[in-house]
Automatic annotation (TrEMBL):
Residues 1-16, 23-45 have a biased composition (Basic and acidic residues). Residues 46-55 have a biased composition (Acidic residues). It is found in: Cell inner membrane. This is Amino acid permease.
């Protein structure tokens, strides 16, 4: 008996020792991982310090040489050599941290010398001119201020997927698929999540203004950067055009005597002035715009649930219940996967995917903000990972509650489904409240669009893909030229809407429809190119020098599934493009998209040839 007790005690002690050893091993592995992370961070800091010292020494040599040749040294601060890119600037536009002086620049493989006043933070951030080769890896975005806080990024990400399309356009998607539209949003949401994760992988390791355009230019080709950047810029010009052209209708709800063009001009001036103040002001405004939209959606969901749970009577003749998803006019999947109606239109779950995908435009704004985010390695992953639950709450839950209260076949687009749900129980004030929410949504879209466009022009200028004056910033870190240029072009586009509405909506908006599709596809391809660069040992920052699997494992925010995910999502995008061909309106967008891509590629080739001729003449 004593032996058995002693044996049992020994076994317990043995198991305890094994558990202790296991915990010790796990603790050791965690310590080793932390030490490796600290080591990589230290190596990156040392690498950056070394680069700065080398640049400082090189500037000293250049300044000494310039003085000997009769060029005066800069008065306000050190100038920097920029290879393969001619930058013009003005001293009054310099940033406090970096003075603007006379810069001597030489282009590789040419004898040409170029001089001008530049506002440059890090010459490695500047890409060669068109046709002059690949960019060098940057350490940070030059000139811009990292003033966007975590709460700004989170609300920008939250509000990015909520616009007038949800409040008014959701009736179209419901009519196509009925209750199964919720499934369409889940499928489309997963695809968008993977696209933004691909962008997030690059943004965390290399946070830059211009995001996907910059990454396409650096890791893919100069041509890809040009196409991606200008395509995105023109897309937001057109989206802003539409939003400003309809803002008057929301104002007229309260003040019917005000001409719609007056409202458009007023809000264009106000939002433009806001963007000229600084990035923190943009972030603060977008924070409150997004908060209003979020509160509106949550209030609708809560109100709808109260109607369902409390069995409040409605004037629709049907009791509010989640069972309505399955019991009304064909059930959950009333039109099947795909079905042609008697008038020749196609409906069904697959056709709804087309509408659903385009409702997610704006989610990629997270990547644009990375260059001005104080802590991109912390805030970008958090905002990106929140996309899934945002889609589940703001789209799936919202539409699910709507169709539980209002039968899906009674949602005909004559009024917003969000108004219809409260109107059915006699809450008439809902229309006025939603009108206010939509007005803030319009301002939010133009605010985000102007911000994104000014930063895109800034990035394109630093790639050599746009006029160099667009790459300057003022003392507040605002690319003033980019803001004003985008605002003026948007104003012109609004005039086009009022003068030639059919041309604007039938053709220009067709380009805007397909432009987001083009950029999403390019983001996935660029991420694949980025991974190949990282695996080859040429990754940015602390990744530089690491190769193969070690380099991929060192990525702080990896795309789940890697290349496999990219291929699957690209195949899904191709399916949606094919489905667009079955719809007359989207078929026009497909044709316009092909023509638009051809125009962008032609312009790039003309610029590249002009650059090569200029270089040849100077030899």
């Amino acid at each position: 008996m004593v032996r058995e007790e002693e044996g049992e005690k020994e076994r317990e002690e043995g198991q305890g020792r094994k558990g202790n050893r296991k915990r010790e091993k796990e603790s050791k592995r965690r310590r080793e991982r932390r030490e490796q992370e600290k080591k990589r961070e230290k190596e990156r800091e040392e690498s950056e310090e070394s680069e700065e010292r080398e640049e400082s020494e090189e500037r000293g040599k250049k300044e000494g040489t310039g003085a000997q040749e009769g060029h005066p040294a800069p008065e306000q601060g050190p100038s920097r050599r920029v290879s393969g890119f001619r930058i013009g600037g003005a001293p009054e536009l310099c940033i406090p941290e970096h003075g603007a002086g006379r810069v001597t620049m030489t282009q590789k493989n040419t004898k040409q010398e170029m001089t001008g006043d530049a506002v440059v933070d890090n010459p490695a951030n500047i890409a060669p001119a068109v046709g002059a080769g690949r960019m060098q890896p940057p350490s940070e975005t030059p000139g811009l201020k990292k003033q966007l806080k975590n709460r700004h990024i989170q609300l920008i990400a939250l509000g990015g997927a909520i616009g007038t399309g949800l409040f008014y356009g959701s009736s179209e998607s419901i009519s196509l698929a009925g209750p199964s539209i919720m499934l369409a949003y889940i499928i489309g949401g997963l695809a968008i999540f993977m696209i933004v994760r691909a962008l997030g992988e690059m943004s965390v390791e290399d946070p830059q203004a211009g995001a996907f355009s910059y990454y396409a230019s650096r890791y893919w080709s100069k041509r890809a950067g040009f196409v991606s950047g200008w395509n995105y810029w023109f897309n937001y010009i057109l989206v802003s055009m539409v939003e400003l052209s309809v803002v008057g209708s929301f104002v007229n709800y309260w003040f019917p005597g005000i001409p719609t063009w007056v409202s458009a001009v007023f809000f264009l001036i106000v939002i433009t002035a806001l963007n000229l103040l600084g990035v923190s002001e943009f972030g603060e405004a977008e924070f409150w715009f997004a908060l209003i939209k979020i509160i509106a959606v949550i209030a609708m969901i809560v109100g709808g649930i109260v109607i369902i749970v409390c069995a409040l009577p409605t004037d629709l003749g049907v009791r509010a219940s989640f069972a309505n998803w399955f019991s009304i006019d064909g059930g959950f999947l009333p039109h099947g996967l795909m079905q042609q109606t008697s008038d020749g239109h196609w409906t069904g779950l697959l056709m709804a995917l087309v509408v659903v995908m385009f409702s997610f435009g704006g989610t990629e704004l997270i990547g644009i903000t990375a260059g001005e985010t104080a802590e991109p390695r912390r805030t970008i992953p958090k905002a990106t990972n929140g996309i899934i639950w945002r889609i589940l709450v703001f789209y799936v839950a919202a539409l699910g509650v709507i169709m539980a209260v209002v039968p899906w076949n009674r949602i005909d687009g004559t009024m917003s489904p969000f108004v219809q749900i409260f109107d059915s129980v006699g809450v008439r004030i809902a229309a006025g409240l939603l009108n206010f929410v939509c007005l803030t949504a319009v301002m939010s879209v133009y605010n985000s669009g102007l911000y994104a466009n000014s930063r895109m022009l800034y990035a394109l200028a630093h790639q050599g893909n746009a006029p160099r004056y667009l790459g300057r910033v003022n003392r507040r870190g605002v690319p003033v030229a980019g803001v004003l240029t985008s605002a003026v072009i948007t104003a012109f586009a609004v005039v086009v809407v009022f003068v030639w509405p059919e041309f604007a909506f039938n053709y220009l908006m067709s380009i805007a429809t397909i432009a987001a599709f083009i950029n999403w596809t390019m983001v996935l391809i660029t991420e694949w190119k980025f991974r190949r660069t990282v695996e080859a040992g040429n990754g940015p920052g602390a990744l530089k020098g690491l190769t193969g699997r070690d380099a991929v494992q060192a990525l702080a925010f990896k795309l789940p599934g890697g290349h496999v995910s990219s291929v699957v999502v690209i195949a899904f995008m191709a399916l949606v493009a094919v489905l667009m061909g079955f719809s007359a309106s989207y078929r026009v967008a497909l044709i316009a998209g092909v023509i638009w891509l051809a125009v962008l590629l032609t312009v790039y080739e003309c610029m590249a040839r002009a650059e090569r001729r200029s270089e040849a003449q100077q030899h």
